[in-house]
Specification:
Number of helices: 12
Order of helices and strands: EHEHEHHEHEEEEEEHHHEHHHH
């Protein structure tokens, strides 16, 4: 099952968002489209296809608040029936190529209890945070929880403790950067698809998905952050666009990486 959190300030389900949901629907029994925007019936109809269900909610708590409500709405007994739960949001464009490469790669690795695409290393917290350091953590724009974790008391414990924050920085400080440690402290194991992501961040002094998306794309990530245009330098955006154009024209074979 996949939980896809949507937000758009103009209350639109973009073509990219719809394409992302459609891609998720290929690999799941059910996709729950959770929108924090007041979408019209016309916009909602864009995602009313196949195995997609819709959860409408107020815009509170950002993505973690939405996932918390989705977990509660579905119920723990039902969620335990699935082999995996995929958590995603529309902070990224639709995958540039099939998610099957990521899913098959992770299924073929040593079994873990949860995993993500990229990992951020331990380091100093942002000045606006209350804590001095943040722990190594999976970045939450896309992560997966396996049945071994979902069926454990820790899964319910984690989502019960998630708060409805009013500021995005608080979501990052108290939810995203705490989630990985919360589960590893309780004996669960994790992995990331791009194992080099932590090293890149340390070497490049902030090579996160906003600043250096080209590096992650070349390492196999199919996801590009929408806010790249706001944070990446102009030369990085030009190189990124060149690669994307090659992919769309068929001149770039990601299977050869």
């Amino acid at each position: 099952m996949a939980f896809f959190v949507h937000f758009d300030k103009d209350c639109v389900a973009s073509d990219s968002d719809v394409a992302y949901v459609r891609e998720l629907s290929k690999y799941t029994q059910e996709v729950l489209f959770i929108t924090n925007s007041a979408l019209s019936d016309e916009e909602l109809n864009k995602v009313r296809f196949g195995n997609v269900r819709i959860l409408l909610r107020e815009n509170i708590g950002f993505d973690f608040g939405a996932w918390k409500d989705a977990v509660a709405a579905c119920g723990l007994d039902r969620l335990c029936e699935f082999d995996q739960l995929i958590f995603a949001n529309n902070s990224c464009f639709a995958p540039l190529w099939s998610l099957s490469k990521v899913l098959n790669e992770m299924d073929g690795r040593k079994a873990v209890d949860f995993w993500g695409i990229t990992e951020y290393p331990r380091g100093y917290a942002a000045a606006s945070m209350d804590k001095l350091m943040i722990d190594t953590h999976i970045q939450s724009y896309f992560f997966v929880m396996e049945k071994t974790l979902v069926a454990s008391p820790a899964f319910e414990e984690f989502w019960n403790r998630v708060a409805y924050h009013e500021k995005l920085i608080d979501v990052i400080e108290y939810e995203e950067t705490e989630m990985t440690k919360f589960f590893t402290d309780r004996g669960f194991y994790y992995d990331v698809y791009i194992s080099e992501s932590t090293l890149l961040t340390g070497r490049m002094q902030n090579a996160d998905p906003y600043i250096h998306p080209k590096c992650l794309l070349l390492l196999g990530s199919p996801l590009v952050k929408k806010k790249t245009s706001q944070f990446a330098f102009i030369d990085e955006r030009i190189r990124l666009q060149h690669i994307i154009d090659q992919i769309h024209s068929g001149g770039f074979d990601e299977s050869e990486e």
